[in-house]
Amino acid sequence: MAKYRQYKAMDMPSRQWPNRVHTSAPIWCSVDLRDGNQALATPMNVDQKLRMFHLLVQLGFKEIEIGFPSASQIEYDFLRKLIEENHIPDDVWVQVLTQSRDHLIQKTFESLKGAKRAIVHLYNSTSEQQRRITFGKSKEEIKAIALDGTQLVIDLLPQLQGTEVMFQYSPESFTATEIDYALEVCQGVKDLWNPKKRGTMILNLPATVELSTPNIYADQIEWFCEHLQGRNEVIISLHTHNDRGTGVAATELGMLAGADRVEGTLFGNGERTGNVDIITLGLNLFTQGIHPHLDFSNLPRIRQVYEECTLMDVHPRHPYGGELVFTAFSGSHQDAISKGMALVEQEEAKIAGPADPGKERWDRAFSTLTPLWDVPYLPIDPKDIGRTYQAIIRINSQSGKGGVAYILEQEYGIRIPRSMQPELGTITNKVSDTLVRELTAEEIFDIFQKEFVNQTSHYELVSYHVSREESHRVQFSGIIRVDDSRVEVTGYGNGPIDAFVHGLQESFNISVSVAEYTEQAIGAGSGTEAAAFICLQTPQGIRVWGVGQDTDTSGANFAAILSGVNRASARDIPLQE
How far is CA 6 from the centre of its chain? Predict the structure, then answer.
């Protein structure tokens, strides 16, 4: 016999969930203050809990499980603080958890006095393993625990006059319970509560330990929904854990299978490998054009509060929230991203509206006026969740030409000509390879400046004058330093660049032609400078780029040509015929 047994699949040839698509967000319930808090090495103190509670309210959660007040004095006191100091908005339900044990249920009701809206969450474990190993009880005995607890909740309702109470029942370890028995227990609880008499109730079906592939969980949810009598009288809720690493997928498929509600935590914090991650679930819906009805427009702030309250770090590759998730190191990825971003920004520029991250931008994502997000490798616009484009592309030895050019344009407004990008990319990658690390934007800018801009290692323009003769020829005259000497240079041509190139040929036998030329303005106002990008071609057909910057356009052109000449000389590229 093998040590591990394969989880049994459902026999459901008529399953419907695979053909469905998500069309709306579920009811969300945060359990950060319960499942999330109990999983921390150092549980949150009262101030941290209060800060987390207010964050959850600000994000738009209408149901928040605040703890287990009957089992912990700290959690009891925290609930009383929320109620007595009026921290709970009128439209928010506070949920409290209790085992199906008389004294715990009684204390739970005591803790809720004065609350406007409360969800009493009753649970007991129903799985075969728990019945056999933990409790040593039969199916009937376990079912009786659930029914007895439900009856006590009903009996205690008069103690909460003025409080709107919703009842929730969870068969703990639902996925490890025989499906027909789980239905039997839940049906008994539901019938005893009688939703028609006491209002809608919640049946929460937890994958307390994730045991199977997500499709099997979806089958269980669909089967349960189909076989529960009075299905429309209850809210079916999901509570998945992540033991197999598929908690998000299991929840998404469970929603397709008929569930109405999801319990989870921010960034998936919870016991063992964690609870399902509501941020990932919500933003997955967002990328499909479905408003999650939670506000994740400032994800960096959410992450900051989460990390400060839990003393845990969000993994750099965590979906949406991780430091590196909008970062591309691959050269082909960088090039595709930069091209896609340029097109989107062109479309956005045509539409009036807020350009900065924020709630207004978040809501505007669902406007028909907003251009379609269509950028390779990025399923979501980082600005919609408060991130920026500045760190999307970072450079290491695996990066390509497009990434380096993108960094220089985004950070410094320098547009590198496309045909120059391979040369710049190769030089930058060599530096990163030598340092065995990624390069910062400042380091990339420094490489560009030192390698290409206003190079004067051998030839340097000291002074010049440009004049136009009656014949429309242009004359260049100036002084060029060559190492330790100064040489007067004169040249004629049909324009300043042509005249300067001819002057170099006459004075130094430098025979080059201008293969490509582009210029742009860098900076703004009185600090604006002209930048010239010139590609020189040698008699042997070798191309070398040089860049010049100057307050004068002609000066920038001449500096660019000399930069190319100096770079060619430094690489021992022949400049004579």
Answer: 35
> Tens place of pLDDT for every residue, the chain, 577 residues?
689 989 999 999 999 999 999 999 999 999 999 999 999 999 999 999 999 999 999 999 999 999 999 988 999 999 999 999 999 999 999 999 999 999 999 999 999 999 999 999 999 999 999 999 999 999 999 999 999 999 999 999 999 999 999 999 999 999 999 999 999 999 999 999 999 999 999 999 999 999 999 999 999 999 999 999 999 999 999 999 999 999 999 999 999 999 999 999 999 999 999 999 999 999 999 999 999 999 999 999 999 999 999 999 999 999 999 988 888 877 678 788 888 888 888 887 777 554 555 777 888 888 877 888 999 999 999 989 998 655 456 666 666 667 788 889 888 889 999 999 999 988 998 998 888 888 888 999 999 999 999 999 999 999 999 998 877 799 999 999 998 899 999 999 999 999 999 999 999 999 999 999 999 988 777 678 899 999 999 999 999 999 999 999 999 999 999 999 999 999 999 988 7
| Helix (H), strand (E), coil (C) string for 153-183 | HHHHHHHHCCCEEEEEEEEECHHHCCHHHHH
For 562, half-sphere exposure in the C-beta direction (CA atoms, 13 angstrom radius) is 25
**Pairwise CA distance, residues 452 & 536, whole Å:** 13
Q: Cα separation of 252 and 255, whole Å?
A: 5
Angle at 136 between CA 134 and CA 142, to 5 degrees: 90
Same CATH fold assignment for domains 17-294 and 459-570 = no
Instruction: Parse the chain into domains and list their residue ranges.
Output: 17-294, 331-452, 459-570
- What are 1-5's contacts with CB under 8 Å, separation 24+? none
Q: At what angle do helices 299-310 and 46-59 cross, to 10 degrees?
A: 160
| Closest by CA position to 260, among listed 229, 235, 228 | 235
CATH code of 17-294, in short, is: 3.20.20.70
Angle between helices 46-59 and 73-84 (to 10 degrees): 50
What lies within 8 Å, CB to CB, of 437 at 6+ separation is 396
Which pair of tokens denotes residue 497? Answer: 């660049």
Q: Assess contact for 530 and 496: CB atoms under 8 A.
A: no
> What is each CA distance from 545 to 41, 486, 491, 520, 529, in whole angstroms?
57, 25, 22, 16, 19
CATH of domain 459-570: 3.30.160.270
Residues in the chain: 577
Is the distance from CB of 96 to CB of 120 less than 8 angstroms?
Answer: yes
Give 295's contacts (C-beta < 8 A, 6+ positions apart): 58, 59, 60, 359, 362
List the structure tokens of 382: 């980082």
Q: 398: burial class by Cβ within 10 Å (0-12, 13-18, 19+)?
A: middle
Residues 39 and 510: their CA atoms lie apart, in Å, by 73
Burial zone of 521 (CB within 10 Å; 0-12 exposed, 13-18 middle, 19+ buried): exposed
Alpha helices in 365-436 (DSSP H): 401-412, 421-435
Cβ(120)–Cβ(153) under 8 Å?
A: yes
* End-to-end Cα distance, the chain: 83
